[in-house]
Each structure stands twice: as structure tokens, then as C-alpha cells.
Design goal:
A four-stranded antiparallel sheet has the order 1-2-3-4. The chain is about 55% helix and about 20% strand. Strand 1 and strand 2 form a beta hairpin. About 20% of the residues are buried. The termini are far apart. It has about 160 residues and is α+β, with helices and mostly antiparallel strands. The chain has one domain.
Amino acid sequence: MARLFGSLFLLALLGYGLWPYYTVFRLDDAVRETDAKALTPYVDLPAIQAAYGARLNTLVPAFEPRAGQGADQVVQWLRSNLSRLGDAALEQGITLQWVQSTLREAAERTTESRPALFIDAIDFSFFESWNRFVIRVGPIGSETHVVLGLIGRDWRIVDLVR
């Protein structure tokens, strides 16, 4: 009986380990489609926008003007508007079309075959944690990182870093 449970556990562990790779295989087909909507089941746009927003929020304070005499109201106004403008820009700039073109460009930079296949351009992929799977497209120095997150029962792109 213990041997049966051990075998079932090993089979389940193997299935879980292969699951994101199957998603990457299906993602490759969606990247080659002409319509970006084919990526919809594999992309979590709000998560990608939030990740870019978090990166921007760490960069923006370095460029904000410093408060000085008589300029406090202007600085507060600028600070509040920068975050609103940033959110709107992220929603307009990070779209399914942007994700598709970013993945295609990463594959074209890395592989010589045309049309460039996303799966051929993958240099490294493995689990970062039990619910995060990282894919490096291209060699170190010119890579694009694609981060898949386990959302419900599906692996989806939750971050894309060029």
C-alpha cells in the first residue's frame, strides 16, 4: 500500500513539474498567431501592468522635484499626478499586442530560424517557487525574462522583463 501511495505521489510530482512546460508549448503557438487575442488564456495583463507599475514607482521618486520654499503645493500636485498618469500609460502601453510583439522580438533576436519560434529561443526555464516559473529567452546580457504564475488552475504570464 505504501508503495502505491509512493508511486502516485511520484506521478503527481512529475505531472506538476511538466505542467508549465506544456503551457510554454501552447504559448509558442499563440505567439505565432496573427491575432494577439490568441494570447488571452496565457497572459494576466493586470499582473504585468502591476509589475511594471511597481518598477516605475521605485524609479519615479529619483526624478521628482524636491520640496523647497513656496514650491510645496506644486511638488505635491506633481507627485499625485505622476502616479495617475503612470497607471493610465501602463494600461494603454501594456496590451496583448505589446506582449506578443515583445515575445516575438525576443525570439527573433535569439534564434536564426524564420519564422522565429518562441520555444526555440528559450535558453533556460525552471521553477522559481511552487507557483512561479521563470523562462529566460536569449543568452545572459541580452535576455528577456518571462515569468509564469499559477493562477487558479492555469499558468499565465504575470511579468515580462526585457
